[in-house]
Amino acid sequence: MSAAAPFQRLVYYSRNEVDGDADALDAAIDEILSLSQRNNAQADVTGALLFNTGCFGQVLEGPRRAVEATFERIQRDPRHSDVTLLAFETTDARAFPNWSMAYVGAKPAQAVRYNEIAASSGFDPSRMTANRLLETLHGLAMEKEA
Predict the structure, then answer these.
(1) What pLDDT does 21 receive?
(2) What InterPro entries does the annotation carry (predicted)?
């Protein structure tokens, strides 16, 4: 990953349009993560993804054009609807420098934290701020990294 700054940081949420049971959702998330990790590593994009059956929340960081191109792909992806931009800003440091795409919320300990977020926001993403989503994803990714 490039160490040059500044970077762009984009925070968004979207509604999940993946149909099916838990196995179908797991398979869809595995596919999203695999493709994201490969594509993001090539494009010098880092970030983290939070998912529940209703919504995606994600942070993307990197060079402006790469972040914009990644976000445009997400907006065209039929697995997402109501894609809502919460923040698009310049930053001098990445929050996820070691993650082409971290996925948080999979472990039971993370599920407890995730449930706290859901309780405070009803995991109604329209009630979650960009900073709150960024802080949550960053905290969970750092726990996973440790």
Answers:
(1) 80
(2) Acylphosphatase-like_dom_sf, BLUF_domain
Cβ neighbours of residue 37 closer than 8 Å, sequence gap 6 or more: 100, 101
> Do the beta carbons of residue 129 and residue 89 sit within 8 Å?
no
Q: Say if residues 14 and 82 touch (Cβ distance below 8 Å).
A: yes
- Tens digits of residue pLDDT in 106-126: 534 445 555 565 555 555 556
Q: Terminus-to-terminus CA distance in the chain, angstroms?
A: 20
- The one-letter amino acid code at 36 reads S
Q: Longest C-alpha distance within the chain, in Å?
A: 43
Q: Which residues pair with 87 in a beta bridge?
A: 11
With a CB cutoff of 8 Å and minimum separation 6, the contacts of 93 are 5, 7
Contact between 10 and 60 under an 8 Å Cβ cutoff? The reply is yes
User: What's the pTM value of the predicted model, to 2 decimals?
Assistant: 0.81
Fold of 7-145: Alpha-Beta Plaits (3.30.70)
Note every long-range contact of 26-32, with CB atoms under 8 Å and residues 24 or more positions apart, other chains counting. 28/79, 29/103, 32/79
Q: Please report the pLDDT score of residue 119 as a whole number.
A: 57
